[in-house]
Model the fold of this input.
Amino acid sequence: GDLFDTARPEPQLLAEVQRILAPTLGLRVVLLVGNHDQVSDAPGDHALGPLAPVAEVVERPCVLRCGSRDQGPVDVVCLPYRRGRADDWIPAALREILDGQGEAGGGSSPFKDRRRRLLALHCGIRDGETPPWLVDSPDSIHVDVLRAAMQEYGITAAFAGNWHDARA
Done:
């Protein structure tokens, strides 16, 4: 998310990003829509649309099936930016797309094949070290809420963007 710092990037910038992403030699390029990329919540109303010919643009929560012969199968749960309290919408989105497919889920789910699961999301993650001016930010999720949701669905790692602060 936030590939651009504007919802309406200049055509020259879009063309240059397409030029850079096009020769990825078979690599799968996935872009999540971030808050800076959006004009509204309407489908397609974001800056990443013109990049669809050279990348997968994720604008709604989904699961991408990935993997390789060496690493084995992996499901990447993608949660692009959404307005509202992330503490609420992230667990709800996970339930919506993974309901019944977590560790305790029943039935004959394609997720029961023990594939590794990763989470890619566009929001901040707050904890005891979060600066005071970000603690009440609605576009963040508390690390304990995120951890519980990840454990429920057997997600082993999360990759988050939005606050642009590299932390482990």
Summary: Confidence is low (pLDDT under 50) at residues 102-112. Strands lie at 30-32, 56-58, 62-68, 72-79, 116-122, 124-126, 140-142, 155-161. DSSP finds three helices and eight strands in the chain. The first strand starts at residue 30 and ends at 32.
